[in-house]
Design goal:
This protein is α+β, with helices and mostly antiparallel strands and about 170 residues long. It has five helices and eight strands; from the N terminus they run ααααββββαββββ.
């Protein structure tokens, strides 16, 4: 199935795109928009003479992410998982929209922006407990995020943007 795509709309580049789709549309698409938001195989990058994007964790390994997150001393680790928090509405829905209804034990996934300079962008978000309460204090959930699923650390380390997390506790 082909994704809905408008080559002049930044939002279109923020959805997952296959390498086949990108290559098929390479004449009319904006390469820079694609590589900011899409993880491309080494073969594809070599074939098109493309460099890795800067200030972007699309290709960062989990140890790079672990060291950067640990440097801020704001989160606890459980093996390869980061423990963080999310403020949600009392009915379990996201404070931002009704896309997700968070439940204990639930696993949630989203395409996420890996650009480190984009403070508020697409993807799932989790915070320090203090920042989660500032965002929405109706209900606080504790989540665990595998380091491979961390997309970016923003807001001076206070916010983790990620592709996937699991709700492990309601506070």
């Amino acid at each position: 199935m082909e994704p809905e795509f408008d080559f002049n709309n930044k939002q279109s580049y923020m959805q997952p795109l296959s390498e086949e789709f990108i290559e098929r549309n390479s004449v009319i698409q904006r390469w820079c928009g694609v590589f900011k938001y899409q993880k491309i195989s080494p073969e594809f990058r070599t074939r098109h003479n493309l460099e890795l994007p800067e200030n972007n964790w699309l290709y960062a390994d989990k140890e790079t992410k672990r060291k950067t997150i640990a440097k801020y001393d704001l989160y606890k680790f459980d093996g390869d998982y980061v423990i963080a928090f999310k403020g949600i509405r009392s009915d379990g829905y996201s404070h931002f929209n009704f896309q997700y209804h968070y439940e204990l034990g639930g696993i949630y996934e989203a395409h996420a922006d890996h650009n480190l300079h984009e403070k508020d962008s697409f993807g799932l978000s989790a915070w320090t407990e203090k920042k989660a309460r500032e965002y929405c204090d109706q209900k606080i959930i504790k989540v665990k995020i595998h380091l491979d699923d961390v997309a970016a650390l923003v807001h001076d380390g206070g916010k983790i943007r990620c592709k996937r997390f699991e709700v492990i506790e309601e506070l």
